[in-house]
Amino acid sequence: xxxxxxxxxxxxxxxxxxxxxxxxxxxxxxxxxxxxxxxxxxxxxxxxxxxxxxxxxxxxxxxxxxxxxxxxxxxxxxxxxxxxxxxxxxxxxxxxxxxxxxxxxxxxxxxxxxxxxxxxxxxxxxxxxxxxxxxxxxxxxxxxxxxxxxxxxxxxx
Length: 157
Known about the structure:
Largest sheet: 6 strands, antiparallel
Helix content: 25-40%
Structural class: alpha+beta
Strand content: 15-25%
Shape: flat
Number of strands: 6
Distance between the termini: 37 Å
């Protein structure tokens, strides 16, 4: 079960980090961490358990060429290196995330605009929802432009 990231706080690992696993050796995080949840003991709960944060899951590409990439929980990994000078692949990944967010928001906005005016179906969108969709798209575009401005200024080395 996935939870929102706010309940988990900040993940200790990020895309591009070099990590160590006691059995599998060194590897690199190649996906965005996903917050996971599950049952945790809670004496105040009638059942004695409640759903709560259970760490983070991410894909790891191992340095051992004979080992296939795998999904791994953060509690089994130790951060070895988080490069200060991030390489081109890192920045391409970050830009790709921003671009994908804008594309998703744009698709939502386009759909909302089509269903906002005199749509008699159950899928009709009211103007307030359209404004929210437009604001989210605008925020995504601003983040994308800020990223591009920072890149032009030479901040992505």
